[in-house]
Amino acid sequence: MTVGEQRFVVVTTTHESEERARALASAVVRERLAACAQVYPVRSVYWWEGELQDAEEWRIDLKTRAELADRLGAFVAEQHSYETPEVIAVPVVAGSPGYLDWVAGETVP
Fold first, then answer.
1. How far, in Å, CA of 85 to CA of 77, rounded?
2. How far apart are CA 26 and CA 7, in angstroms?
3. Digit-coded pLDDT (tens) for 47-105
4. Residue 58 · residue 42 · CB < 8 Å
5. What is the pTM of this model?
6. In this predicted structure, what is the pLDDT of residue 6?
7. Domain segments of the chain: what residues?
8. Buried/exposed code over 32-51 (b: 16+ C-beta within 10 A; e: otherwise)
9. Which burial class, exposed, middle or buried, applies to 21 when counting CB atoms under 10 A from its CB (0-12, 13-18, 19+)?
10. What is the CATH number of domain 2-106?
11. Would the pLDDT of 4 be above 80?
12. Other beta carbons less than 10 A from residue 62's beta carbon
């Protein structure tokens, strides 16, 4: 496991349907803004327009280089149907060298 400089991030967003989440995940990976996208169901509880919401959503975790986070966030926002989509980048503080090399090789700086 490599620990050290934070050259990689996981960018997270959600979508209201599996179909839309998978389409967005595919578009991001096709554009080489992320090496991998994982799509899975979640339950979200949040405030929206003054009301408590409780919704089924589909979470997308995108593995990428830290230097691509801004471009990836802009791409997600442009493609997303939500008025205010979640786009959060979390630094990867450690990872297997082979996997991180693969992420670097499958994304375009």
1. 7
2. 23
3. 999 999 999 999 999 999 999 999 999 999 999 999 999 999 999 999 999 999 999 99
4. yes
5. 0.91
6. 74
7. 2-106
8. ebbbbbebeeeeeeeeeeee
9. buried
10. 3.30.70.120
11. no
12. 28
